[in-house]
Amino acid sequence: MTYTLKRRAMVFGAGAALGISTLMASTALAAEPIKFGVVAHLTGPLAGGEAVTHTPNIEFWANQVNARGGLKVDGEMRPVEIITYDDKTNPAEHIKAVQRLATQDEVDFMLSPYGTGFNIAAAPIYAKYNYPLVAVSAITDQIPTLTKRFPNMFFTLGTTSGFVEGVRDTLVTMRDAGTIGNRVAMVNVADAFGIELADKARPMLAEAGFEIVYDKSYPLGTPDLSPVIKGAKNAEPDTFVAWSYPPDTFGLTEQAIIEDLNVKVFYTAVATAFPAYAGKFGSKIEGNIGAGGVNPDTPIMQEYRTNHKAVTGKEADYWASATYYSSLQVLEQAIEGVGTIDRAATVEFIKTNSFDTVIGTISFNENNNSERYWSVGQWRDGVFRAVADTGMGDSVSAVAKDGWN
Amino acid sequence: MQNLALGGLLLAAAVVPLVSDGYWLSIATTAMMYIALSTSWALFSGPTHLIALSTGAFFGIGGYMVGTGMSDYEQSFWTMALIAPLVATALALLVGLATLRLSGVYFVIFTLGLAEMVRNLVSWVQNNFLGSRGLYVLTDFTEAHIYWMLLAVAAVVFLAGSWLNRSRLGFALRIIGNDEEVARHVGINTAWSKVILFMTTGFFAALVGAIVAPRYSYIEPNVVFSPELSFMVVIMALLGGVHRLWGPLVGVIPFTLAWEAITVSFPNSTTLFLGLSFLLIVYLIPHGFTGLFETMLGRMRK
Description:
CATH topology of the largest domain in chain A: Rossmann fold
Order of helices and strands of chain B: HHHHHHHHHHHHHHH
CATH superfamily of the largest domain in chain A: Response regulator
Number of strands of chain B: 0
Strand content of chain A: 15-25%
CATH class of the largest domain in chain A: Alpha Beta
Radius of gyration of chain B: 19 Å
Helix content of chain B: over 70%
Shape of chain B: globular
Structural class of chain A: alpha/beta
Strand content of chain B: under 5%
Structural class of chain B: mainly alpha
Largest interface: A-B, 46 and 41 residues
Largest sheet of chain B: none
Radius of gyration of chain A: 23 Å
Number of domains of chain B: 1
Largest sheet of chain A: 7 strands, mixed
Order of helices and strands of chain A: HEHHEEEHEHEHEHEHEHEHEHEHHHEEEE
Oligomer: heterodimer
Distance between the termini of chain A: 77 Å
């Protein structure tokens, strides 16, 4: 026991000495960078989404902050430095890399990972070292449970129920306007999130008076989706809803064009908001509906999209891109608000303040959840506009799809 | 003397979480997971020389069942950690009966597809009959708890292995591995002997999968049913050598550390290094580190 105590005292002493020497070094050299760590999926199944939504935003954000001279901390402007590790989309590697950032690289802050599972898997480590975790690409109905467990965790992109409710509300509005009838064909990818969404949608749509005339699933990674679309077509629906992942969002759309699936609403979930979706199908997807959406008309959003393109050479997606950038702005404003590198104080600052971001003002409720997000978007003239939201209030009304031209 | 040494090793392993925290503990936990998996893998594949690529399938069943049981059926972690290995054992029985009459490469190919098949099967069942609210595994376990549980499993695998080596079943398996024809002629029920051992590795892989599930907190089927895991286990076991019980152990530790160094230094080419190390092991040290030590010892004696 005495041994451990002694050891600890020694370590503490060494740490303090090191702290003092770094302090001296930093005042002497001035502007030592603030280190931000991120564990990204550079390879593996989620690498595609990461490369569209997260990586360019991190590059863009670091560029913007450093162009201004950095963040104001301890009375001086310090540039930001990003340290990235690849986890191969593997949770065990992810956990190890987060630990490495926290204890070997000793980064000052961390940027949230891509994917619900990875945010939750990393949360205990963030909590242990007091890192604020402003999650974006994490959609779950367990927010209260999770934030109770991990009080340093924040959510910005909504809940699973919120997403399905957005679709239901869009359909109800269109039916009440006489645009569509009651017949819905619903398909889903037979994998975690796809099953969960379909499970929520079934009773919700039935309760809203819709008739599910076709209800099928397909395995993750199915290369040929033509039977799915043919089956849906035979059921003669007014509305087609697919709880899909990126590859099948593309696959289903392609088959729908081939089969000329004649529906007033064609909804696909993840990746509909990607610029590559419009890039691939051009004007044929005019009027398509999908998960996400933004309000592209605010000056701040327009400025964000233009500069994002200019700095990274890539177009921001029409869903989580802007929210991810906003999460970095929240972190940035909280760090400057606290005025010193104090992670616990930064967490507290995020809880109690509101932040001006490219998606508007963000603040967090008692469950650390930001209740402002777009949930359903529609492609209109090459732009994916929000047609349903929670707390945003700036969605436009959805219109019927008019063929695949 | 040997028992004393083993006890000392176990004790040393048990205090790891007390002296190291954070980064090194997370490496040790990953290493301990692979020690349990590789050693139990070698119980079957060592004597029979059948390369089973099924670890991912059984590991996935462990993780998936804990996820669905805790999330959708409000079962405790312990109940699910008990049920999952039994389900995996039953599956190993079916798979073993169907495939262990096949020999050599046919068996390898079948097990390679097994993880993918089981993932699709459970997804289909869940989609059509059970439904899902997301596979959350939220417990109060810290990394140290998970490490200790894995250590306990690894210790049990070692006990089982050492009992097996001295048992009639182990002897039978060695004969099967050397010449199945001979084994059959001396009256060994070759199919059943192999099936029983295959069930044992399935049991332990699922148990490890169940224990690791709280570490992941959220289970994604295509992550737990990972073909890469099956390959990693094989490579580590071969690196150590599979003809000794402690072979995989001496393979896992250097490989985990080397892998960590590769991940940090060459984050974009890890798969390339995985393939290269596979080639190097097979060509340069076909009997693993243990084989190498034994050859060197033999030479010194001469």
